[in-house]
């Protein structure tokens, strides 16, 4: 539903209930006639992080995962909190920035609705023993186009892991259904957000069917 808390870039925001906790997300224009509601998890505090970690862990626990995988950057706090709530210790982060120790990393090309151009997901080969032959859940903050999440799943499987579940805080629109194919059935989301188009009155309104 609309909210009175405004973002200066569009003058609007969107309120969503995330597993019983309401948060207001600024509506941010990507194109002149297209906008999204933007969640920056790192700005929402540790209590919210613990909240989503517990909620996702409850959804993913029946899959009996051995380890949690998340993608940098905003997937890192999700991976940490879900790991903690599941009572596990180790987790694996798929990096996007090249670093010295990642010179020989496994690599997967991806694109994202909130990032310009093609990016790379990098898996440190030192983490391979944590994944090979293990039951893995992959987590992230939002799934929109599904490209980033698909890249994560492909990279984890190349490492020899079995993906038994996917957890995201928010599902956005429905493009990710086609991108993920049958893997969409693995996805557990805590809430859903639409995408937006500009109405004749200048207000941003949800795109029907998203």
Automatic annotation (TrEMBL):
Organism (species): Xaviernesmea oryzae
GO MF annotations in UniProt: glycosyltransferase activity
The protein's name: Adenine phosphoribosyltransferase
InterPro entries referenced in this protein's UniProt entry, alphabetically: PRTase-like, PRTase_dom
Ranges for domain Phosphoribosyltransferase: 59-179
Keyword terms of this UniProt record: Glycosyltransferase, Transferase
Upper taxonomic lineage: Bacteria, Pseudomonadati, Pseudomonadota, Alphaproteobacteria, Hyphomicrobiales
Gene3D superfamilies: 3.40.50.2020
């Amino acid at each position: 539903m609309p909210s009175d808390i405004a973002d200066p870039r569009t003058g609007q925001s969107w309120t969503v209930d995330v597993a019983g906790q309401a948060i207001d997300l600024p509506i941010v224009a990507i194109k002149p006639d297209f906008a999204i509601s933007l969640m920056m998890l790192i700005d929402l505090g540790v209590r919210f992080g613990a909240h989503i970690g517990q909620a996702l862990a409850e959804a993913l626990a029946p899959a009996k995962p051995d380890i949690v995988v998340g993608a940098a950057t905003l997937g890192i706090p999700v991976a940490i909190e879900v790991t903690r709530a599941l009572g596990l210790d180790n987790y694996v982060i798929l990096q996007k920035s090249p670093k010295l120790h990642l010179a020989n990393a496994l690599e997967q090309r991806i694109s994202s609705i909130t990032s310009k151009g093609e990016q790379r997901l990098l898996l440190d080969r030192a983490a391979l023993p944590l994944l090979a032959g293990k039951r893995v859940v992959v987590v992230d903050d939002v799934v929109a186009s599904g490209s980033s999440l698909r890249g994560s799943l492909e990279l984890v499987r190349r490492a020899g892991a079995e993906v038994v579940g996917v957890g995201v805080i928010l599902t956005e629109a429905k493009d990710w259904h086609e991108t993920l194919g049958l893997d969409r059935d693995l996805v557990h989301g805590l809430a859903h957000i639409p995408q937006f188009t500009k109405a004749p009155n200048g207000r941003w309104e949800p795109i029907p069917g998203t």
